[in-house]
């Protein structure tokens, strides 16, 4: 019946169970000592206890669990990938955003080219060299701009004097 899966932990004196990660209320990752021996032994395993209180085997050692954690980038609910339920739609969105190859392993084997970056940096960062258009002023525009400049300087010089007399 069990195949290659180890015997599930028990909530009695046969197992010592320590919670490693509460998984934001979506289950618990537990360090389990089989046969109630709290020493580092071959009977130490890492299990995932889901909200329905079903046990799902993750790894034999803490080091292997830590590698899995890093491989899955610690994304929320990554432990459900090792259950019969699978990851939730929300977790799939996170996986598709940050680790598309991990969640789509079936697609990877079928379509190897779908994950190849086809971005051409020469096209994306192509600079657009526009020559600036220089407008030449006609003699009538140059004279008009001088008149407006002198009238502005006159108004600027007269206004501070008015302000100082009010104080």
TrEMBL record:
Residues 127-167 are annotated as: Disordered. InterPro entries: TPGS2. Residues 139-167 have a biased composition (Polar residues). Residues 127-138 have a biased composition (Basic residues). This is TPGS2 polyglutamylase. The lineage of its organism: Eukaryota, Metazoa, Chordata, Craniata, Vertebrata. The gene is Tpgs2.
